[in-house]
Amino acid sequence: MKDGILKAMTSDGKILVVIATTTHLVEDARKRHGLSFTATAALGRALTAGVLLAPVLCREGQVALRFDGNGPLGKVFVDASPKGTVRGYVENPQVELPLNSLGNFDVGGAIGPDGTLQVTLDNGTGRCYVSTVELVSGEVGEDVNRYLVYSDQAGSIVVVGAHLSKNGVEAAGGLIVRLLPDHDEETICQIENNITTFGSFTFLMRRGMGLEGMLKRILTGSDVLMLTEEKPISFACKCSKERFTEALKIFPKSEILSMAEEDGQAEGRCHYCNEYYHIGKDRLLDLAGGAI
Ligand SMILES: [Zn+2]
Question: Mind listing the domains of the chain with CATH numbers?
Answer without folding.
Answer: 4-235 (3.55.30.10), 241-290 (3.90.1280.10)
